[in-house]
């Protein structure tokens, strides 16, 4: 062990017998979308090479199918022909310029396929995909096992150090393993010995094709988190059989994609599931990897030093910062651009069949396109506004060699992030602000807080160009009685509530059910102060129905406990929107359901198709489907959108200044830090 290291367990090599990993960090599998783009493998090679250069010990690629029926989508990635090897060699050659190993993930989607040729153990449709799968014949099962083995052989030819066989998250091998989806009555169904047979025969076949000196990781579903999931005894039996069949390492799989338990979003506590890997450590002897919501070297070190696992897997943290491991090794963890678990630019993009990237690092997956080259001539730039857009632009432009000064009328950096960080479950936003504060210090960027700028002051300072990152203003509504409501502090804006801590009564109506409306509802759940289960694992597991004692299959509790239960002072909250679509429809694809479920668990009412008639002393008079009703409310909180704050633009342009608008000052539709930071990077790259 490297005891001189700030993270001795994390940075200790792992001896696999026939080969050694340089540290205990796995960059977990994540599909990027580059796999299917024309010329995408050259970009993918640059993406993985940056992470290898950044010090990661082992990389697992996004999922690649061993045959056509197992593809994610009609033109999804597949490795089943010799002529497909060459493009993969670009990736392995790029990674192997550094002491990093790389494994290809072999993933057959089964009933999760987004195409009509899907197959599964039984004809049982998935709730999250449009097609009903065909039940596999015995011949197809045997053919699929051969396809896995051949794909592994091709992976070895392509230069991969190993493969990860995906046996979790509700994909084909997991579908065979559980009675939820396996209704067969032949030798591939019924008992756990039969249901796990596909996994074991696949590992055996792969091992016979690739020999002993090739890494085989098996991703085992240790927590199915669905009805009809496996019991702990069945999971253990399968793990022991996986080890005996020739796997090198077992990776922890958590939850099916259709599970109603969140497993990776921001509100999931850090390292929320490492306890199940620790439980498995008592049962097998090969190395175990733990995963999910591990996003700092400190959390990873604690897991490893306490013996919960032999390696840690992080996927999204390597989108956020390619140099994660090197920074940890240099005792610079405070310089890491931390993953906040938002999913907005990574998983949400992938599920919309767009290229993945990262909200806090828009260069991720754009390493060959969004490049910050040094400038030949430095410009003196003023940035007005120290929210996400202004902060990101200032760092990127300074890195290119420009002289940047930043001004904000408020007393702290962060803009709307200072609102977001106070929402229960969004505490990770503090990390992004810590990162920017550190970057400003390292780059010595002049920062003027509590200073309001004017056209005259900016003109007098002699800036070459001005970047307005001045954010947004809450939109004013015209509803009968609203002025009187404002005067008696019955009507408040979301800024009054979250930023200024205005007093809020027991009955609340929230106008606007976008992201801000959901945030305000979450903020107000509970008693007079906002509470969060993010840092209380047992409370969080109870709320979402996860049983650490594993009394039931899938590790689900018989009864979940809502955050507000037992709390005498539960607010009555009603969330309202004009649109007739489902409340929360515009939220993120992978996280929106979590926000809706959280509010539902805590008895928040949600109404769509609302016409706002009047603010009255007793509350808010509305009309839904032609019927008037009164929502009794001590407070009515306005979360109905915002407008760009461009107060300085016209005056600057009139004085001949070159002005750029970024972030909310450019487009203020739903607050969008992802777009703001990307826009800042794109401007910084060309200015």
TrEMBL record:
<dbReference type="Pfam" id="PF00724">
    <property type="entry name" value="Oxidored_FMN"/>
</dbReference>
<dbReference type="InterPro" id="IPR001155">
    <property type="entry name" value="OxRdtase_FMN_N"/>
</dbReference>
<keyword id="KW-0411">Iron-sulfur</keyword>
<protein>
    <submittedName>
        <fullName>NADPH-dependent 2,4-dienoyl-CoA reductase</fullName>
    </submittedName>
</protein>
<dbReference type="InterPro" id="IPR036188">
    <property type="entry name" value="FAD/NAD-bd_sf"/>
</dbReference>
<dbReference type="InterPro" id="IPR051793">
    <property type="entry name" value="NADH:flavin_oxidoreductase"/>
</dbReference>
<keyword id="KW-0479">Metal-binding</keyword>
<feature type="domain" description="NADH:flavin oxidoreductase/NADH oxidase N-terminal">
    <location>
        <begin position="10"/>
        <end position="333"/>
    </location>
</feature>
<dbReference type="Pfam" id="PF07992">
    <property type="entry name" value="Pyr_redox_2"/>
</dbReference>
<keyword id="KW-0285">Flavoprotein</keyword>
<comment type="similarity">
    <text>In the N-terminal section; belongs to the NADH:flavin oxidoreductase/NADH oxidase family.</text>
</comment>
<keyword id="KW-0408">Iron</keyword>
<keyword id="KW-0560">Oxidoreductase</keyword>
<dbReference type="InterPro" id="IPR013785">
    <property type="entry name" value="Aldolase_TIM"/>
</dbReference>
<feature type="domain" description="FAD/NAD(P)-binding">
    <location>
        <begin position="380"/>
        <end position="654"/>
    </location>
</feature>
<dbReference type="InterPro" id="IPR023753">
    <property type="entry name" value="FAD/NAD-binding_dom"/>
</dbReference>
<keyword id="KW-0288">FMN</keyword>
């Amino acid at each position: 062990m490297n005891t001189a290291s700030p993270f001795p367990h994390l940075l200790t090599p792992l001896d696999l017998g026939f080969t050694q990993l340089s540290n205990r960090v796995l960059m977990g599998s994540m599909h990027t979308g580059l796999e299917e783009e024309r010329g995408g493998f050259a970009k993918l090679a640059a993406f993985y090479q940056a992470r290898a250069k950044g010090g990661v010990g082992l990389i697992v690629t996004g999922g690649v199918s061993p045959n056509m029926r197992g593809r994610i989508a009609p033109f999804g990635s597949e490795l089943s022909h010799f002529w497909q090897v060459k493009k993969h060699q670009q990736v392995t050659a790029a990674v192997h310029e550094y002491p990093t190993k790389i494994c290809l993930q072999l993933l057959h989607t089964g009933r999760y396929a987004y195409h009509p040729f899907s197959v599964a153990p039984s004809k049982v449709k998935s709730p999250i995909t449009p097609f009903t799968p065909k039940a596999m014949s015995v011949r197809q099962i045997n053919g699929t096992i051969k396809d896995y083995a051949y794909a592994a052989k091709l992976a070895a030819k392509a230069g991969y150090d190993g493969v990860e066989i995906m046996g979790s998250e509700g994909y084909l091998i997991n579908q065979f393993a559980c009675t939820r989806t396996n209704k067969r009555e032949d030798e591939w169904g019924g008992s756990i010995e039969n249901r796990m047979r596909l996994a074991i025969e696949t590992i055996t076949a792969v091992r016979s094709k690739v020999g002993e000196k090739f890494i085989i990781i098996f991703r085992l579903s240790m927590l199915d988190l669905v009805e009809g999931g496996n019991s702990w005894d069945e999971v253990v039996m399968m793990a022991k059989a996986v080890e005996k069949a020739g796997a090198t390492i077992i990776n922890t799989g958590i939850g099916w994609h259709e599970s109603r338990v969140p497993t990776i979003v921001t509100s999931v506590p850090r390292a929320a599931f490492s306890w199940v890997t620790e439980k498995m450590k008592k049962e097998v002897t090969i190395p175990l990897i733990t995963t999910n919501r591990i996003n700092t070297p400190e959390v990873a070190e604690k897991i490893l030093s306490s013996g919960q696992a032999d390696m840690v897997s992080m996927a999204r943290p390597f989108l956020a910062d390619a140099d994660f491991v090197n920074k940890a090794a240099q005792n610079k963890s405070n310089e890491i651009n931390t993953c906040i678990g938002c999913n907005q630019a990574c998983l949400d993009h992938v599920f919309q069949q767009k290229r993945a990237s990262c909200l806090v690092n828009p260069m991720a997956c754009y390493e060959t396109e969004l490049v910050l080259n040094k400038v030949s001539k430095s410009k003196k730039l003023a940035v007005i506004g120290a929210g996400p857009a202004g902060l990101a632009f200032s760092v990127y432009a300074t890195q290119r060699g420009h002289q940047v000064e930043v001004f904000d009328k408020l007393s702290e950096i962060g803009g709307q992030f200072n609102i977001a960080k106070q929402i229960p479950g969004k505490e990770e936003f503090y990390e992004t602000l810590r990162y920017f504060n550190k970057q400003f210090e390292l780059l010595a960027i002049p920062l003027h807080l509590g200073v309001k700028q004017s056209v005259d002051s900016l003109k007098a300072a002699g800036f070459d160009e001005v970047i307005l990152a001045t954010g947004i203003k809450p939109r004013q509504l015209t509803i009968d009685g609203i002025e009187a409501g404002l005067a008696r502090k019955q009507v408040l804006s979301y800024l009054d509530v979250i930023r200024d801590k205005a007093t809020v009564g027991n009955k609340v109506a929230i106008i606007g059910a976008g992201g801000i409306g959901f945030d305000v509802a979450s903020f107000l759940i509970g008693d007079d102060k906002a509470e969060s289960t993010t840092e209380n694992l047992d409370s969080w597991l109870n709320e979402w129905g996860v049983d650490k004692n594993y009394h039931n299959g899938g590790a689900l509790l018989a009864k979940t406990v809502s955050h507000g239960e037992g709390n005498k002072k539960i607010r009555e909250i009603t969330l309202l929107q004009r649109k007739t679509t489902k409340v929360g429809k515009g939220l993120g694809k992978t996280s929106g359901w979590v926000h809706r479920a959280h509010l539902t668990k805590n008895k928040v009412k949600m109404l769509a198709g609302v016409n706002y008639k009047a603010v009255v002393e007793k509350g808010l008079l509305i009309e839904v489907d032609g019927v008037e009703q009164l929502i009794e409310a001590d407070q009515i909180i306005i979360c109905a959108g915002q407008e760009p704050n461009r107060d300085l633009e016209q005056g600057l342009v009139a004085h001949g200044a070159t002005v750029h608008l970024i972030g909310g000052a450019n487009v203020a539709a739903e607050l969008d830090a992802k777009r703001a930071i990307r826009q800042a990077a794109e401007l910084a790259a060309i200015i």
